[in-house]
Design a protein that fits this description.
Elements (H helix, E strand, L loop, with lengths): L7 H17 L4 H7 L4 H17 L8 H11 L4 H18 L3 H22 L5
Length: 127
Amino acid sequence: MKKDITSRNDIILLVNTFYDKVKEDPEIGPFFKEVMKVSWDKHLLVMYDFWDNAIFYSGTYAGNPLKKHQHLHSLSALTADKFTTWVNLFTSTVDELFEGEKATLAKQRAQNIATVMQIKILDQGKD
């Protein structure tokens, strides 16, 4: 039986493992490398705080991910397929490493985030 997500160290493991997969993914890897031009050291620190807050309500993250993604969309179109790939990679990473209440919460949060981003970014202006 796998353990649940119980600490910041678990968040770090999850985030690092997930982004290792993202970097290699043919659908979204190039977006991170070529469009975002990610500074991984900085990005990972932000993601640790983001997911720590999303799962444990730690107050460690105070950014605006929607605004950031809207800007990225203006540089290179985000698509429903990219969001689906992101969710699938995140969910499979959680399932690979953890199980339990917080693991389920992390997967739900990822799905909710992707859904809101799609509505706010992809569906804006559609009537």
